[in-house]
């Protein structure tokens, strides 16, 4: 018992040295749990005043997230507690990575997210690939005239700038992670460098250093960091190949969410005329994350990439908010659809203005639905004559 008291006294002395607020004589007299809890809260408050708010946190606060406005993406980021939706969207103060092959639509997906968030926060776009197209960005809704674009000379430069701007921007976009050479690849300490020199894993080491240095600052500032990355194909003994992303193990460890974008060879069926030409389907698959939904599929359009309204309708159909209507015999009536809780039927094209008008309501209801609803199998009467809105 004496040894326990000695250890407790030493711990209390350490608390006193750190906070300069609690007297040893006072703490030694603490015997019940209530007083100990009060002393702990007092010590935590003192530490946070001395070292900055959030140094020590208590309770179970949900991760603060910002909705992206693209249902296919937000469905992959939802958090539920006891069946209740807590949050969805990009996590503030954390890293999110989207990776995939060339031309799958990673940058267009990012542009759609930027167009949604640009009125809420400052966004810095790092064009490490030197392929930023402001016209294409504007077609995707980005305010290109007022969006700062960083074109770094080397990896260290843009990583240092991101650290320096922590707290000044609400969102950092890196396109893409290791597509620019590090300073060490360009020249050694003597200013010399040859293409024959071996600088393998140098970028990965620099990325690891960046995460170690920047994570605390970006997290406390609540900055969203969205990292785009490419695909590297590796072989296994010459018999098999697998896909991975460059950047080293640090990317796997520090990114809270990792989503792979996969281009499908097929195109979504039954997309009505909406002034957009479908190009291909894109499946978003969760490689790392705590959410229950592991993948979603949406459509990439030739004119503007991803369309939030068309995407919402695709996801509403996937979750049976919108179902195919049936005739009196219970057979599906091709080309006619209805909301699951309504008897009124429409052509799918006629549902666009209805969904657009109810966008926020339907979006929220979709996010609150953990699993696709069971389709109601009761026969529905189909009007032979469709009024003006259904034409």
* Total beta strand runs: 17
CATH class of the largest domain: Alpha Beta
Uncertain segments are: 377-391
Strand order of the largest sheet: 7-6-8-9-5-12-13-14
Shape estimate: globular
Q: Largest sheet, if any?
A: 8 strands, mixed
Question: What class do helices, strands and sheet pairing give?
Answer: alpha/beta
List the helices and strands and how they pair.
Elements: H1 2-19, H2 24-28, H3 33-51, E1 65-66, H4 71-74, E2 79-81, E3 84-87, E4 90-91, E5 95-100, H5 106-117, E6 123-127, H6 134-139, E7 149-150, H7 155-164, E8 171-175, H8 183-186, H9 202-221, E9 224-229, E10 232-236, E11 240-244, H10 249-254, E12 255-263, E13 278-288, E14 295-301, H11 308-318, E15 322-326, E16 332-339, E17 345-347, H12 348-357, H13 359-368
Parallel strand pairs: 5-9, 5-12, 6-7, 6-8, 8-9
Antiparallel strand pairs: 1-4, 2-3, 10-11, 12-13, 13-14, 15-16, 16-17
Helix pairs in contact: 7-9, 11-13
Structure report:
- With 391 residues, the chain is of the alpha/beta class.
- It folds into 3 domains: 50 residues, no CATH class; 171 residues, P-loop containing nucleotide triphosphate hydrolases (Rossmann fold); 69 residues, no CATH class.
- The protein has an 8-stranded mixed sheet with strand order 7-6-8-9-5-12-13-14.
- Strand 10 and strand 11 form a beta hairpin.
- Helix 7 packs parallel to helix 9 and helix 11 crosses helix 13.
- The longest helix has 20 residues.
């Amino acid at each position: 018992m004496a040894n326990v008291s000695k250890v407790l006294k030493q711990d209390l002395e350490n608390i006193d040295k750190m906070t300069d607020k609690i007297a040893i004589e006072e703490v030694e007299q603490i015997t019940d749990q209530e007083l100990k809890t009060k002393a702990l809260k007092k010590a935590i408050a003192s530490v946070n005043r001395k070292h900055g708010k959030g140094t020590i946190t208590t309770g179970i606060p949900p991760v603060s997230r910002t909705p992206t406005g693209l249902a296919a993406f937000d469905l992959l980021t939802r958090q539920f507690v006891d069946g209740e939706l807590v949050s969805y969207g990009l996590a503030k103060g954390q890293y999110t990575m989207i990776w995939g092959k060339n031309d799958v639509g990673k940058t267009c997906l990012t542009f759609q997210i930027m167009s949604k968030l640009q009125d809420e926060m400052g966004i810095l776009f790092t064009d490490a690939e030197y392929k930023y197209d402001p016209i294409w960005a504007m077609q995707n809704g980005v305010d290109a005239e007022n969006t700062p674009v960083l074109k770094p000379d080397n990896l260290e430069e843009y990583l240092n700038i991101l650290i320096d701007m922590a707290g000044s921007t609400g969102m950092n976009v890196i396109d893409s992670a290791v597509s620019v050479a590090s300073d060490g690849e360009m020249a050694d300490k003597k200013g010399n460098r040859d293409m024959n020199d071996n600088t393998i894993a140098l970028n990965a080491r620099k990325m690891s250093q960046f995460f170690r240095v920047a994570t605390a600052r970006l997290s406390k500032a609540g900055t969203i960091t969205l990292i785009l990355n490419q695909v590297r194909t590796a072989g296994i003994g010459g018999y098999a190949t697998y896909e991975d992303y460059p950047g080293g193990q640090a990317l796997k460890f520090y990114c809270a969410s990792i989503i792979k974008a996969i281009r499908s060879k097929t195109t979504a069926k039954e997309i009505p005329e909406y002034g957009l030409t479908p190009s291909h389907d894109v499946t978003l698959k969760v490689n790392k994350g705590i959410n229950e939904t592991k993948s979603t599929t949406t459509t990439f359009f030739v004119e503007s990439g991803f369309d939030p309204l068309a995407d919402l309708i695709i996801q509403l159909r996937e979750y049976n908010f919108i179902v195919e209507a049936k005739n009196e015999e219970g057979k599906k009536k091709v080309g006619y659809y209805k909301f699951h809780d309504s008897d009124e039927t429409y052509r799918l094209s006629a549902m666009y203005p209805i969904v657009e008008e109810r966008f926020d309501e339907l979006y929220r209801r979709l996010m609150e639905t953990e699993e696709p609803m069971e389709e109601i199998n009761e026969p529905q009467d189909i009007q032979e004559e469709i009024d003006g809105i259904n034409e």
